[in-house]
From TrEMBL:
The lineage of its organism: Bacteria, Bacillati, Actinomycetota, Coriobacteriia, Coriobacteriales. PANTHER family: GLPR-RELATED TRANSCRIPTIONAL REPRESSOR, SCHLAFEN ALBA-2 DOMAIN-CONTAINING PROTEIN. It comes from the Bacteria. InterPro entries: RecG_C_sf. This is ATP-dependent DNA helicase RecG C-terminal domain-containing protein.
Length: 171
């Protein structure tokens, strides 16, 4: 793991029918038994989805496509570039697409942090917000409370105010 990229190395060369040029379209499992087990446990959605899924999942969050190489013909290396500036801009644009610019501009720092956490993670809890903003849970709960209600940006999910699994999500 590096500041500007993540490199994943798999020992062993590509199978004979798979090349760096055709790996997006050619399906081949290096270990079919492990692949079948992963599908049966529900850890992957379908057989041979790995490369295709990497490309589709990374398309929205990375500026460049994943890069596969075969250094020395003895291993396969996947490089995922990380551009924090571009990713931050894309997240901000996506948030503005979901909420109005006026609504975002009217938020204080803690409220904006709560909305961004809820948007990025799909939900936010008081404990997570407290850790993120460096304040206590009571402060985080007050911030989240301001963001719910009539016309609020967040909605509360839980069975009671004391529910340890309660969380807030973007409306």
């Amino acid at each position: 793991m590096f500041d500007d990229r993540l490199e994943i190395v798999s020992p062993g060369a590509l199978p004979n029918i798979v090349t760096l040029d055709n790996m997006r379209t050619t399906r081949y499992s290096r270990n079919p038994r492990i692949a079948r087990t992963l599908v049966e446990f529900g850890w992957v959605r379908e057989l041979n989805e790995g490369v295709k899924r990497i490309y589709t999942e990374m398309q929205d969050s990375l500026p460049n496509d994943p890069v596969y190489t075969e250094p020395g013909g003895t291993k396969v290396q996947l490089t995922l570039e990380n551009n924090i500036v571009a990713r931050t801009v894309r997240r901000s644009e996506a948030l503005e697409d979901r909420l109005s610019a006026e609504a975002i501009a009217s938020l204080g720092d803690y409220e904006l942090a709560a909305v961004r956490l809820a948007f990025t993670n799909g939900k936010v809890a008081a404990r997570g917000l407290a850790e993120h903003i460096g304040r206590d849970r009571r402060t985080a709960s007050r911030v989240l409370g301001k963001l719910i209600g009539e016309g609020g940006l967040l909605e509360w999910h839980g069975s009671s105010p004391n529910d340890p699994r309660q969380f807030y999500a973007i409306r």
